[in-house]
Amino acid sequence: MKDFSNFERAEVLTQALPYIRRYTGKTIVVKYGGNAMVNDQLKEQVMEDIVLLWLIGVKIVLVHGGGPEINDLMNRLGKKAEFVDGLRVTDKETVDIVQMVLAGKVNKSLVSLLESKGGHAIGVSGIDGSLIEAETKNEKLGFVGKITRINIQPITDLLEKGYIPVISTVGCDKSGNIYNINGDTAVAHIAGALSAERLIMMTDISGILADKDDPSTLIPEITVSKAKTLYQEGVISGGMIPKVDCCIEAIEKGVQHVVIMDGTVPHSILMELLTDEGAGTMVTGG
Questions:
Q1: Torsion over CA: 79, 91, 245, 43 (sign)
Q2: Tens digits of residue pLDDT in 218-236
Q3: Domain coordinates in residue numbering, the chain
Q4: Which single residue of 159, 193, 250, 258 has CA 20 to 30 Å from 285?
Q5: pTM of the model
Q6: What are the tens digits of pLDDT across the range 118-153?
Q7: CA–CA distances in Å: residue 191 to residues 188, 228, 231, 238, 264
């Protein structure tokens, strides 16, 4: 910023004004994936961006993952992580670890960071207020949950009081069983229940590529119907399939736009919301 004159700084702010007007008072849900939490410096910068949006009147809901942190604790405890179709096999001991890491360490560290940057945040899990109700998804996966209901009231209460809700994706059933919920699935349900203006999926990939080996082939915008065509053509494949499935589900549940972006790029949220250029791939209903 030292290379910018005061006039140039003022110009940047005035150019952002139409976007500030567009999103002030609107609900934006951000999924902060574990793979985007690559270092403390970047994490601090992301939290600064979220606080900036909150300060200009955007209603921000932060839903986070924490897969790498879960793997790290499991390794230290001598427990091997096992996955089936991208879902963590979750026995009773593992669901305790998931709850400890997501609802404890990761959630509260993000709340603390937001507070240190001048925001007001409250961390909750899907267990609190029965926010995420679930049932067993597949007996072979153990305590992996299939969402049966989203109780959005705890989130709307926090938003109305001026807080940034920070949500960890563990759920529960009426018998008190705790479930590990896939973060992408959870955020699609939450954003849909909120009828969010936009869902931003921060991960470690730039978006949907026409050629997965060529970053220059990023597709900036795509409709749900076109995305389904790209499935059939094999353009969307592998690890991108569940991400795009999440986008489609969110759109079908009432979200206006969903963006997949590389959360490891500095200020990618601000580039998406406050500039003409945007960031990543936007999925729309078409």
A1: negative
A2: 888 888 888 888 888 888 8
A3: 23-284
A4: 159
A5: 0.91
A6: 999 999 999 999 999 999 998 899 999 999 999 999
A7: 5, 21, 24, 24, 22
